[in-house]
Amino acid sequence: MNMSGVNALRLARRPGPGTQLSLTPSYRHKSPFNHRSLSTSRHMAAAQTEEPARERERGLRMQAWQCAGYDGVGGLSLATVRIPPVLRPNDILVRVHAASVNPIDASLISGYGSQVLNMLRLAGQLEQGIVDPNFIEFPVTGGRDFMGEVVSVGHCASGVKVGQHVMGVVSPQRQGSHAEYVVTPASNVCLVPKGVTNEEAASIPYAGLTGWSAVVISGMMRPNAALGKRVLVLGAAGGVGSFLCQLLSAWGAQVTGVCSGDAENLVAGLGAEPLDYRDPGTKQMLVRDGGYDLVVNCSGSDDLEYLEALKSWMGASYVTLSPPLLTNIDNSGIVGGLVKSVRDVVQGNARSVSQGRLYKWAFFMPNPSALKHITDLMAKHRIRGVVDKIFPFSDAPEAYSHVIAGHARGKTIITMQ
Fold it and tell me: Under CATH, which architecture does the 8-204+385-415 domain have?
């Protein structure tokens, strides 16, 4: 029996004895960029297709933590909404088992980056042939990375199959993973390595790709050229910092991790030499050393004095993961914000360039090959997810508050089970 509907998910029942229920995505979508009719019907194996009674009773609806305004944690509410359809041919639908709460999630629900993200959301609508003069971004679902099970795939999606367990990311302009289901491009996920827990898998993707962008894209340090290089990681016990200590150590770099005193054992166990940032002698010692090839600041606040810890005239870079670009645009508009951001970069480099050191910014970037490299290292037990605290899905606001409080050791996770 074949059933289809425009942009909807329906239940298909296979006739015969022992009939079982399966999720069947059906859609036909037209846009100025793609006039082909899209239609997909995928059935999962018997053990994987039976939907819980509660989902059938809701008529293929799901729960999601959403905000209807930029009111911070107080504005989060648990809503019952439609399971998102797979509209793009390269997208997949994933039933979320676990998701992490990143600092960016806590910032976005307070309005951080809203100007740029709304431009990207509008561009996404235009891609689908939608022109809405009354566009409004709300409600917004947070969550940038996840681990879960694939339940539907677009007809051009490759590399994954229905029923496989994957870990991946969601771009910030899309509806996020703090929901029972999430849609993302197939290129944004990888299979979960054997032996990795749901929570560990959910903790890695966004932090990992952000760290990769800082080191490889901005810092220009390649995996095959990192052996023996000296790297200083500020905020080494946090989500990105704990990942980078492991990644760089796996590449053969000599890593120094600046953290609080009570996190030194954790950082040492990740392959880095720990130093307590509260010790007044730490920064002085590192500046006197002046022998680092790369400084990556994951601490959440810029400290340009650490530029002095870099080698001179050796292509060394200080990379910050707290650039003011989105804040500048939020405060001054697109043109004014870009002008101010250029001025900030020039000022950051004004002194350091004369000494042969570079000041740079880094941002999260989706990167399929990087995610594959990361999961390969996880499979070899060279990288593990560092989980600080786990919250049930029903307590998601408490998870956000925990992240906002700061000083986490690794990642904060929301679990569906």
Answer: Alpha-Beta Complex (3.90)
